[in-house]
Amino acid sequence: MAARFATDPAAIRGRLYHEEESLFRSSFQRDRDRIIHSSAFRRLKHKTQVFIEHEGDYFRTRLTHSIEVAQVARTVAAALDLNVELTEAVALAHDLGHPPFGHTGEEALNRLMAPFGGFDHNAQALKIVTDLERHYAEWDGLNLTWEALEGIAKHNGPVTGDIPFALSDYNARHDLELTTHASAEAQVAALADDIAYNNHDLHDGLRAELFSTDDLAELPILQDCFAEVDRKYPGLNYYRRRHEALRRFFGILVEDVIRVSQRNLTELNPASVGDVRNAGHMVIAFTPALWADLKVIREFLFTRMYRAPTVVQMREDVTAKINALFPFFLDQTDELPKQWRKDVAAAADKTALARIVSDYISGMTDRFAIQEYERLIVV
User: Fold this and answer.
1) What distance in Å separates the CA atoms of residue 74 and residue 71, rounded to the nearest whole number?
2) Residue 56's closest CA among 211, 242, 202, 205?
3) What is the homologous superfamily of the domain 1-308 according to CATH?
4) Which of 219, 329, 333, 334 has the smallest number of CB atoms closer than 10 Å to its CB?
């Protein structure tokens, strides 16, 4: 039985467009399924996590990352007696707004869009599920529940200050209460993202030979993981040894979140999901000590992986491609696909046009962006 503070699918705040609910699926199951069947979700298969999609079949893509986040999120949500389907929906949707080439592509697009309101992948995810997925007869978007949209918009915490235009535009039509925290389910999705990428980026960095197993064995948390494996399995071969250590690292992160969050929820004693939203702090969290250790690991990854010479070269190359494609489509809108030209014709000014071009480019996969660059820019 779900906890009092879990989000109840029978008591949702509704959808922007009314529709009859399913006889055999809950509201949040339908949200999850619509996300999985969306075009944007399929495109994540060919979008960068750290390495360009085509650089190797074993590296994580944005799709496999999202699946791993959802797996962690389901585990934590179940342990905390939360709504697993809502948690999974937010986890699967959290990166839908990423452009090609990962955070490098986002940084390039944000610079290009600075005169027109900037670009933010979280806000873009909301725009995708509320507008750009245009398949249904009666509405644009996926018509997700308020609770799913809230989780996508503010799973990392309240959104205040300079709110991205894609988020503020929708919020004006459908108030997502941006100044409060999200449900515990959405908070779980946010921490599951941290757990997943800290774990799998270590795997991918090893596979890319950007650092060694010995390097990892000197890091906090991992030092104890390797020591335990060596005690239990002396002489274990290189690949099995590092796998055993990393799976222990993974387990420590998950167990820490569950333990701390259970304690936080017990202390808060929320009577409803509303009490979680208005707690004034995240109730799903790591211990301060583990968070400090993760900071050291993230700094290691930043230096040895995200800013490795080969990755830096890749970043420069793909940034040049985005920098070329954006002004090209802005000046030559007839090169946009036919279904995009109707929006172009309705654009009131250059800002509206730039946002259309940004939507188009951000939806590209890595391989398609490269193909379009070679087709349209390279002479």
Assistant:
1) 5
2) 205
3) Hypothetical protein af1432 (1.10.3210.10)
4) 334
